[in-house]
Amino acid sequence: MRTESTGRVVTLTANPSLDRTLALPGPLERGTVARLGPSSTEPGGKGVNVSRAVAAAGADVVSVLPAADDDPIVRALHELGLRLATVPLATPVRTNYTLTEPDGTTTKLNEPGARLDGTALAALEAAVHEHATGARWVVLSGSLPPGAPVDWYATLVRGLRDTGARIAVDTSEAPLLALLDAGPDAAPDLLKPNTEELAQLAGVPEESVATDLPAALAAVATLHERGVAEVLLTLGADGALLSTADGGLWSARPPRITVRSTVGAGDCSLAGYVLADLAGADPAGRLQHAVAYGAASASLPGSAVPTPPQVDPAGVPVTAGPPGSPTSAAAVPAAGTDAR
Prior knowledge:
This protein is of the alpha/beta class. It has helices spanning 46-56, 72-79, 118-132, 152-160, 173-181, 195-202, 206-210, 213-225, 265-278, 283-298, and strands at residues 8-13, 17-23, 39-44, 60-66, 83-87, 94-100, 106-110, 137-141, 166-170, 190-191, 230-234, 240-244, 249-252, 318-320.
């Protein structure tokens, strides 16, 4: 799907990274020497991944991130043709390491990131607000860097209300809990949890929502009660579901592909959703493209993002209502549990 120009997307990646992917020849064995296969380095961070996928579809996107003008991530993103709004930092952007095994198993080793002071945080807020004014979507993604208040996403959502943009948030752990605890005025238009994050919000073990559909739907309903308009819940091998505050519910199953890396799959799912919305798709179509983009991402190495010819929405069945019986263990995740 190549998107016609119907609005601008702005992403914030407060904790960007250079993603170094190392291909293992077999299962990871601690304490041994592994002879690596081909490796790659991509500009990363969850918002950056969303931007890359949106830009690959021809849509207008601006990536806001903290990084010096000569930082390798800035050079790499410029080489990809992305439009950037950067806040200069003296500290280099962190490097994250991904170990991939032949069966698709992925191990992430993430550095903490550069510490941001109040000046840098204020500059990022101003940059996001400037570019969000008149935009269609603002996507706030990923972990918060050292120095950022745990409730910073809530502050950002409130501050963006006057821009007219819809706001999507994809984060986890303490920043996610703080966002939902901040009240309805800080609730985003779209929240994209996976089962682990939904369990964090519900205060229950992940198995409770991963294996008990009524429990998962009940947990999603509590998000609507707290002000979230739409919830895109990724379900691993069982695909994803989209729930809306007016009672709408749709589910989708992923196609069968060969998993190469799940890094960035959730980000590409979010990009697919946003792209479909830019193209005027209904909720079922937005969900269909989200799952198709996530599956296409999982079929690519490292943190590569798919281009429209690599995405097959027609291969993603969507039904109204909750998902049916689980797929087999061999099925491919629509969007993995991305590291933040």
